[in-house]
Amino acid sequence: MIAIALAAVLQEPADVQSGLCQRALAAAPAYSVCTETPHGVALAMDRANADALARHASAGEARFQTYFARDIAPYAVTSSPTPLDRGALETAGFVHVLPWPDPEAFDRARRQGIETAARQFASSQGLGAAQADQMVARALVNGGAEGGKAALDAGMLPHELGHLWFTQAFWPRVDQGDEGVSHYGGPGPDWLDELAAVLLEDAPTTDRRRAQMQQLLRGEVVPTIGPVAGRDTLIDLKGFLSRAHPALARVQMNPPNLPAGGGIALVYTPAGGAPSAAAQERLFYIQARGFVDFLTDKTGRATVFADIAQALAGGRTFEAWLSTDGAALGLPDTIDGLDRLWREGR
Ligand SMILES: [Zn+2]
After folding, report:
1. Mind listing the pLDDT tens digit for each residue in 166-179?
2. How far is the CA of 291 from the centre of ligand 1 (A)?
3. What is the Å distance from ligand 1's center to 101 Cα?
């Protein structure tokens, strides 16, 4: 009896299996395929793409449970550029709608980004048109490193969902009538928000950030990060804990439709110039991963970031939380003490 029921469930295609996909396809009829995750859906134009997005999102959900142990509101990942009525999906109960570039849109944007960066660099160096063309051609050949779109999606889709889930879990949106939807008291500090997203990345992305952190701390230049003195930035924990997100201005002007954290573009910064915003952004992700590993290691507590977020959402500061809860978790009870511990042996 149980075996028969199970077989029936397994044979049923995912897109007719549940209410979530039915609701999503009714609200976004331009999509032909829907795949469910435990708390959301992935909408796409073909089964392989929908399944891949759902697989990455599901892995992110599991990690969110491990580190934050909070509910995830219904969400939809929508393969773009398919036309989409975001409001209809929200009305259908999807609290988060995350557009994600399909493979063709991704490749177009990648090539465009590489070409723009290469041309800007060529003109800053006073190179002629023919030399600029050569530089673009070379950059397009070299720009496909880092494992391609599938590898990027596996790390960056959970990352971007992490921002949404984390903010909603600890700073839930409230309907303010005529003034629209807003957050109570504003979401948490940038470092904690970024750390929450980095926590949901897959193992290869995590390994890459750890390796880059070690290289940078040794004073090496990492080509995919840019010619920056990464060690100075990474060792500065107080700077990390007080810094506005390097991508903040960009995000406010233009909400990202493309993942920013994967290092897909090449960095062209003349030697000796100020580190580019993109390089600073990459350092911020690496530092977030480093701080995650540091706090997890010192406390032995996977949900320590949920504790911190809960305290900050209640109006406390990180330092106040450290002073009351730090010692019991094996941490110093001040930021100064934490900073000293962070620098030890690095
Ligand atoms: Zn992020």
Report:
1. 999 999 876 655 55
2. 15
3. 16
